[in-house]
């Protein structure tokens, strides 16, 4: 068999066989979406094609930020791979060009970069910097969040199943949600009092405060929307206690929120550390920590940080190509425009359905609370909707403490026309729920 005919044979092998082989090698706990898992074989922009030749509109994936199989990224990676690919212990212009281009999108205080290969590595490193700087170990996180898969991140994970118990140095705090049906007038005051209590408890236990780690979109939490004054209020309290502020921009970064390049800019704050991942290399693994000159120098003086695959010319070429396409195609402005259009169309759709509560999100990350007629969360209905959307050719997912918030977070090349297609199918799927 030639390699071509072998590939065709592999692609047409029945899905059940592939699933059995996957279970026999990767095990059955490695998660797969959908009752009948999708075998996707190719992508193009916002479109995905399965092994049977059916195409789907991708309303879910944020890693292919500038579109699936983007030719500019593919060509840049390919050209660099054919030229040279080495770690950062030799001078190479590509990584410096990338650092310059990336840092140009940040505020004046955030002008240094550590490169990593994933969001987990970035958060792990940011926590390490914060611990060393503050001399403390305590961490404040949201009480339903996920920041990565290392041991120290597992110890602060509350938004996904892990065996590790919550670390004694971790205090999860409830993120106040201005969109919740029961959000009272004292929402902000009560939530900040909870933060004060968490800080006091860390200090009493001798951990002190090293960091507040948060996702500006509170996405795992179900796209919660804190009231004005919350995020900056927490940041001020954490800093007063000697800790640092870490914005995890793995989900919210790179123009996703439409109004700004970075999610933390929605709150008018400048964090001490910003962690990056997912969309950074359009699928080529690239992550990073952006920080201040002082913090990077302090860490560098005391630690020899080296990361074999991080900041190679190839990963830098991928990162540069993503920034280039974003700029050339005006994707941040597009996210703002398409996002506003989606929000306008979601509201009447929600008003018509007895099963939709709050309309959530910013830019090209939007969600709907799926609820029972009495307003309680309806995870089974959310799951049914996601399956129905798949049969209608649109991929979406769900998040949140009750797993009932529809999660729609397409590649940034999603246009108004794509949005209208998604919304039309969502409207029909919601109508079907009423019957
Ligand atoms: C907010 C956030 N931070 C960090 C991570 C971890 O990133 P990675 O899977 O690249 O290690 C994720 C992954 O889902 C995430 O959503």
Automatic annotation (TrEMBL):
Family: Belongs to the class-III pyridoxal-phosphate-dependent aminotransferase family.
Keywords: Aminotransferase, Pyridoxal phosphate, Transferase
MF-aspect GO terms: transaminase activity
Record protein name field: Aspartate aminotransferase family protein
Coiled-coil zones: none
Stored PANTHER family: ALANINE--GLYOXYLATE AMINOTRANSFERASE 2-LIKE, PTHR45688
């Amino acid at each position: 068999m030639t390699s071509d005919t072998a590939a065709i044979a592999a692609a047409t092998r029945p899905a059940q066989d592939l699933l059995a082989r996957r279970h026999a090698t990767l095990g059955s706990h490695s998660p797969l979406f959908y009752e009948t898992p999708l075998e996707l074989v190719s992508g193009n922009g916002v479109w995905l094609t399965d092994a049977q030749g059916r195409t789907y509109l991708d309303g879910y994936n944020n890693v292919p930020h500038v579109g699936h199989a983007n030719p500019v990224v593919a060509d840049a990676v390919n050209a660099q791979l054919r030229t040279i690919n080495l770690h950062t212990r030799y001078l190479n212009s590509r990584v410096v060009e990338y650092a310059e281009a990336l840092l140009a999108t940040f505020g004046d205080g955030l002008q240094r970069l550590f490169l990593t290969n994933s969001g987990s590595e970035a958060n792990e490193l940011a926590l390490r910097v914060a611990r060393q700087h503050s001399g403390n170990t305590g961490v404040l996180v949201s009480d339903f969040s996920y920041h990565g898969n290392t041991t120290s991140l597992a110890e602060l994970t509350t938004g996904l199943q892990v065996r590790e118990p919550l670390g004694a140095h971790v205090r999860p705090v409830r993120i106040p949600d201005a969109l919740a049906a029961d959000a009272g007038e004292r929402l902000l005051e009560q939530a900040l009092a909870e933060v004060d209590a968490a800080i006091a408890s860390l200090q009493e236990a001798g951990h002190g405060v090293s960091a507040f780690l948060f996702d500006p979109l509170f996405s795992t939490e179900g796209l919660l929307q804190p009231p004005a004054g919350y995020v900056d209020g927490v940041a001020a309290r954490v800093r007063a206690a000697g800790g640092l502020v870490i914005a995890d921009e793995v989900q919210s970064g790179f123009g996703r929120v439409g109004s700004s390049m970075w999610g933390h800019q929605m709150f008018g704050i400048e964090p001490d550390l910003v962690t990056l991942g997912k969309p950074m290399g359009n699928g080529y693994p690239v992550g990073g920590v952006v920080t201040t000159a002082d913090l990077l120098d302090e860490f560098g003086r005391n630690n020899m940080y080296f990361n074999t695959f991080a900041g190679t010319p190839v990963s830098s070429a991928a990162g540069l190509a993503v920034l280039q396409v974003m700029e050339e195609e005006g994707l941040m402005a597009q996210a703002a425009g398409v996002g506003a259009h989606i929000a306008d169309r979601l509201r009447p759709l929600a008003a018509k359905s007895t099963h939709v509560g709050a309309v959530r999100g910013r830019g090209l990350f939007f969600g709907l609370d799926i609820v029972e007629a009495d307003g309680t969360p309806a995870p089974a209905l959310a799951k049914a909707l996601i399956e129905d959307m798949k049969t209608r050719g649109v991929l979406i997912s769900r998040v949140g403490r009750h797993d009932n918030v529809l999660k729609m977070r397409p590649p940034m090349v999603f246009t108004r026309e794509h949005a209208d297609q998604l919304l039309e199918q969502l409207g029909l799927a919601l109508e079907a729920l009423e019957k």
